[in-house]
Design a protein that fits this description.
It is built from 1 helix and no strands. The chain is mainly alpha-helical and 36 residues long. The chain has one domain. The protein is rod-shaped. Keywords: Membrane, Transmembrane, Transmembrane helix.
């Protein structure tokens, strides 16, 4: 069980780190330019 928790925490650290930041900025730019 502890191993599963560790894996989930590592995945969360990756997903909610740079990846999510790039995704949010990308969507923001896309909407800003697309709806102009």
């Amino acid at each position: 069980m502890e191993a599963i928790t560790h894996v989930v925490n590592v995945i969360n650290g990756i997903v909610w780190g740079p990846l999510m930041l790039v995704l949010i900025l990308g969507v923001g730019l896309f909407l800003m330019l697309g709806l102009r």
